[in-house]
Amino acid sequence: MKSDKRNSRIDSVIFDFDGVINDSATIERAGNRIIEIVRKNNIFVPDNILEIFRKHWGIRGTDLLVISFNISKERAEEIYRQWEKEDVQNPYPLIEKSEEVLNRLKKGYLLSILTNRNRENVMAVINYYNIKRFFWTIQTLQDCPFVKPDPRALDFILAELRKFGLLPENHLFIGDTPKDWECASGRNVEFIAVTTGMFKEKDFLKLGLDKSHVLKSIADLPKWLKKHGRA
What we know:
Layout: H1 3-7, E1 12-15, H2 27-40, H3 49-56, H4 61-69, H5 73-89, H6 98-105, E2 110-114, H7 119-128, E3 137-139, H8 155-161, E4 171-175, H9 178-185, E5 190-194, H10 201-207, E6 214-215, H11 221-227
Parallel strand pairs: 1-2, 1-4, 2-3, 4-5, 5-6
């Protein structure tokens, strides 16, 4: 990671939603929910499905279903709608202390969400937990023609925040997947990984991410900012 980025002031924090703010991206939660829905639709579940999930987790939901279960795009869209409906009807809890962290950071940073989920779906969960008030902008699948891990998925938020004079080095991206890291790296945005999703510290270290940039959860983020003199 470049030294000029480490020394730059952080004024903006961009969060992925699932696995970072919402406890919805572990094998035990999302993985098993997907498998249950797929089986109800009489679709074959490969024996190595968890391995497949880990390899592709973080891409658009319908694409994940097509790859994981070898089904058509149309069938995947049908399954994905059922998945979204279940997520709204039975929302996963927020990551522990996430609301407290967002409330604290809101006082000193512009906060945003970048998610590959459909707007209607993710906003239903965000409104359920009454956390929309913390975010300056929420970018969903409908707001940009590109999705993570494509670095161009960040261009919308970066352009909007440039109105405040912010450059890529003034942002911090918080994600829980290698796909998030790939997206941030492609735009020279500093990245912090949290291990509240499907991936653990060793997975991010293999990517070359410094250990200091892997946190157990966003509950550790205020302490990280203070320790690194970026608060």
